[in-house]
Amino acid sequence: MSNHCQLTGTVPRFGNTISHSHRRTSHRFDPNIQRRTYWAPSLGRTVTLRLSTRAIKTIDRIGIDAAIVRMQARGERL
């Protein structure tokens, strides 16, 4: 799948870029996707995830085990 976050489900959005002269050109706003590897004690192995930077901050706050529970509830494969 293309640019999407495995934790939050953020996907690219589409809109217009408006110049100073007010001309509109189509634009694709991609989420800032990073690849991160975490040690998951509940699974007993490392997990490599494609996450947005906002999701990385969320994992820092709630922990990897709680994030894994959220991803599995969404039906995301690990």
TrEMBL record:
Task: Give the domain of life.
Answer: Bacteria
Q: Which UniProt keywords apply?
A: Ribonucleoprotein, Ribosomal protein
| Signal sequence extent | none
Q: Which GO terms describe its cellular component?
A: ribosome
List every stretch annotated Disordered.
Answer: 1-26
Give the PANTHER family listed for this entry: 39S RIBOSOMAL PROTEIN L28, MITOCHONDRIAL, LARGE RIBOSOMAL SUBUNIT PROTEIN BL28M
Q: What family is it from?
A: Belongs to the bacterial ribosomal protein bL28 family.
Its protein name is: Large ribosomal subunit protein bL28
